[in-house]
């Protein structure tokens, strides 16, 4: 089973990310983000990662397939259980 980390992007300046946050983004397999995360911070995510804007439910449905509603309440948990 995979691990889940919650990383705050702060005010959007990638130089203000913690060292651990930058390291996690550089190694992540999947990253969920919202529209408040800056392009610069998104640019620090590894190119191999699946990057999902949390507004995009259609992407989640394609990724997770047809699942019970309770799993969509926690898309991170659903992906974690799949790995």
Could you characterize what this model shows?
The chain is mainly alpha-helical and 83 residues long. The chain has one domain: 3-Layer(aba) Sandwich (Cobalt-precorrin-4 Transmethylase, domain 1). It contains 5 helices and 2 strands. The chain has helices at residues 19-27, 39-42, 57-64, 69-72, 75-82, and strands spanning 30-33, 50-53. Strands 1-2 form a two-stranded parallel ribbon. Strand 1 (30-33), helix 2 and strand 2 (50-53) form a beta-alpha-beta unit.
- Name the CATH architecture: 3-Layer(aba) Sandwich
The total of helices stands at 5
Task: Indicate the low-confidence ranges by residue numbers.
Answer: none
Q: What is the CATH superfamily?
A: Tetrapyrrole methylase, N-terminal domain
> What's the main sheet like?
2 strands, parallel
Total E-strand runs: 2
Q: What sort of overall outline do the alpha carbons produce when their principal axes are compared?
A: globular
Number of domains: 1
Radius of gyration: 13 Å
By CATH reckoning, the class would read Alpha Beta
